[in-house]
């Protein structure tokens, strides 16, 4: 009778939760007790100079528990879920090879999903095709692009609003590059994560507690110079896109806190209305 050999996968821990739920503090505490090394799972923490509005771990926290994938890029550079998956897998392999356990902590669920399930085989962006789409949109309007998408990918066209040029352009671009619709390609499963993953999510039982924490964090952000940090991004020559994305990201992180949202929406509107933007 033959024995069936099962491959033992290395272990990994996922620690997820909303803004101000206490993820970082818990991860640091676990680092003091367990043989774990931390990997940040946050689409904003990867960027240098975006510290206050992202509540990036400070020097003391980093000295207690160094986080990988923090401050790895200039804000002018793009970074995708595919980039994250590649970088995170490399970091996980290094941690496992050192005899320790990867502890991935953060709130960017798209990144966690990309790691767990892999990514569909969507083609990389093609600047020439993207330019052709944008030229046609300038001549005929984005409604024409939406109608063209509907003829080749009606499912995506139903999901994407005609006034969403970025997603419209990408969906049509995928078809023009590959000859297959985005809907068809996204149904193809990616490569699963080769780890035995233990997933944990934390959040206060009472959402009011979470909202109070977020409000307190926002007030601290302002005290620490968040407005100056945003202005420094805006003053860069390539900053308009960075500025808008950063403010929108911060608005999302502030949950239901009206004073926080209203302050950052003012920055967003003022920045959008500046001449030349």
From TrEMBL:
<dbReference type="GO" id="GO:0006400">
    <property type="term" value="P:tRNA modification"/>
</dbReference>
<comment type="function">
    <text>Catalyzes the transfer of a dimethylallyl group onto the adenine at position 37 in tRNAs that read codons beginning with uridine, leading to the formation of N6-(dimethylallyl)adenosine (i(6)A).</text>
</comment>
<dbReference type="GO" id="GO:0005524">
    <property type="term" value="F:ATP binding"/>
</dbReference>
<feature type="site" description="Interaction with substrate tRNA">
    <location>
        <position position="108"/>
    </location>
</feature>
<dbReference type="InterPro" id="IPR027417">
    <property type="entry name" value="P-loop_NTPase"/>
</dbReference>
<keyword id="KW-0547">Nucleotide-binding</keyword>
<dbReference type="GO" id="GO:0052381">
    <property type="term" value="F:tRNA dimethylallyltransferase activity"/>
</dbReference>
<dbReference type="InterPro" id="IPR018022">
    <property type="entry name" value="IPT"/>
</dbReference>
<protein>
    <recommendedName>
        <fullName>tRNA dimethylallyltransferase</fullName>
        <ecNumber>2.5.1.75</ecNumber>
    </recommendedName>
</protein>
<dbReference type="InterPro" id="IPR039657">
    <property type="entry name" value="Dimethylallyltransferase"/>
</dbReference>
<dbReference type="Pfam" id="PF01715">
    <property type="entry name" value="IPPT"/>
</dbReference>
<feature type="region of interest" description="Interaction with substrate tRNA">
    <location>
        <begin position="42"/>
        <end position="45"/>
    </location>
</feature>
<feature type="region of interest" description="Interaction with substrate tRNA">
    <location>
        <begin position="166"/>
        <end position="170"/>
    </location>
</feature>
<feature type="binding site">
    <location>
        <begin position="19"/>
        <end position="24"/>
    </location>
    <ligand>
        <name>substrate</name>
    </ligand>
</feature>
<keyword id="KW-0067">ATP-binding</keyword>
<comment type="similarity">
    <text>Belongs to the IPP transferase family.</text>
</comment>
<keyword id="KW-0808">Transferase</keyword>
<feature type="site" description="Interaction with substrate tRNA">
    <location>
        <position position="130"/>
    </location>
</feature>
<comment type="subunit">
    <text>Monomer.</text>
</comment>
<keyword id="KW-0460">Magnesium</keyword>
<keyword id="KW-0819">tRNA processing</keyword>
<feature type="binding site">
    <location>
        <begin position="17"/>
        <end position="24"/>
    </location>
    <ligand>
        <name>ATP</name>
    </ligand>
</feature>
